[in-house]
Design brief:
seven-stranded mixed barrel, single chain, globular, Acetoacetate decarboxylase-like
């Protein structure tokens, strides 16, 4: 085992990442920005994303956990950057993450102080001759079902340099505010993904109940962009805390 492998907290596959991206006013996100980071922009605009995907073959410290290897996650996230000794590190901050298992939510809250909750969830991937045509992810909160659907056309394509798809997917760090006010920084490793542009998308969600009143105005608009990423194997490294 090399030194990097020793620092790996979690390995898995992230597959069929449906990404709906919304323009949002910086002031709405300002209270959620962890110390030592700043909002990251694309084309002078700030984005908030709803992302739904499959979490497969999950292992913590190399060990698979029975009945907790394969599941769905839906998260609400935005994008930040931090000036480090090696240059700018571009990362993601999660406002809330939904998974179907309480144990998964507990581990994420305990080790990273991420805002995970557990709700009943399901998914469906539709293919024609092995080509993906649509994905849907659903979850239930207080007896009401929410759903994210994305339809695509044609084969997945490589990321275009300078595109919104590249901006959204090429953030390789995670940042989470800790209870003592410090920031947890952790690295996420994966290759560049291929993407499908959305032919149609739908997001039907009880935003106020899940995320609070502040985000509903923006998430009830049409997304600025929507696409599906094929995903890959990933590694999440152990976090390191710092204070600004």
């Amino acid at each position: 085992m090399n030194n990097d492998d020793a620092k790996v907290f979690l390995t898995a596959e992230w597959r069929y990442l449906a990404m709906l991206n919304y323009e949002i006013e910086p002031a709405v996100l300002a209270p959620f920005v962890p110390q030592g980071t700043e909002l990251d922009s694309f084309g002078g605009k700030i984005f908030l994303s709803v992302v739904a995907f499959l979490f497969l073959d999950t292992r913590i410290g190399g060990i698979p956990i029975p009945f907790h290897r394969n599941f769905v996650e839906v998260n609400l996230r935005f994008y930040v950057r931090r000036q480090a000794d090696d240059g700018w590190r571009r990362g993601v901050v999660f406002i809330k993450e939904v998974v179907p298992r309480k144990a998964i939510a507990f581990v994420a809250r305990k080790f990273y102080n991420e805002n995970y909750i557990a709700l009943p969830m399901s998914h469906r991937i539709e293919k024609v001759q092995e080509e993906v045509r649509s994905v849907s992810y659903s979850w239930r909160l207080d007896g009401c079902e929410s759903i994210l659907k994305l339809a695509v056309q044609g084969p997945a394509q490589p990321l275009v340099v300078g595109s919104i798809q590249e901006f959204i997917t090429e953030h390789y760090w995670g940042y989470a505010r800790q209870r003592d006010g410090s920031t947890m920084e952790y690295r996420v490793e994966h290759p560049r993904w291929r993407v499908w542009s959305a032919a149609a998308q739908e997001l039907d969600c009880q935003f106020a109940g899940l995320y609070g009143e502040g985000f509903g105005h923006f998430l009830n608009q049409s997304p600025a962009s929507a696409f599906l990423a094929d995903g890959s194997e990933i590694k999440v490294y152990k976090g390191v805390k710092f204070s600004a």
